[in-house]
Amino acid sequence: MNVPAGKVLVKEGDPGREFYVIIDGAVRIERGGQLIRTMGPGEFFGDIALVVERPRIATATADADSRMLVVGHREFHSLMDQFPSIRISVLESIAHRLADLELDWPH
Question: Which of 9, 62, 93, 104 lies 20 to 30 Å (CA to CA) from residue 18?
């Protein structure tokens, strides 16, 4: 999927229906209007909402013209079931991102 710069791909609070892999370009991830990080080629997002079956925890906006691989909810879970290495990579990524967020939270 080709995405123009400025397009909102997922919005915080919306239901999660797709998983995105960035092929080319950049995506800005924001939570509560605050920049969390910028992601680039080879990185992915949308996994947390699909794994925990809850609304999106952040907004993702194309920061540049980008190309994405978009995987639907059913296909995402099928990939996770068929390929344990993908499941492990996704779960490790979630754990790292949540740990990074926790460092920013007041204790």
Answer: 104
Question: What residues does 18 pair with on adjacent strands?
Answer: 72
Q: In the chain, where are the structural domains located? A: 2-104
**CATH T-level assignment (fold) for domain 2-104:** Jelly Rolls (2.60.120)
Using an 8 Å Cβ cutoff, are 18 and 64 in contact? Answer: no
Give the H or E element holding residue 59.
strand 59-62
pTM to 2 decimals?
A: 0.80
* Residue 52, strand partner residues: none
The predicted-structure confidence for 9-44, as pLDDT tens digits, reads as follows: 999 999 988 999 999 999 999 999 999 899 999 999
Distance CA 82, CA 49 (A): 20
Contact 25, 53 (CB under 8 A): no
Closest listed residue to residue 8, CA positions, set 64, 60, 72, 57: 60
Both structure tokens of 11: 């919005």
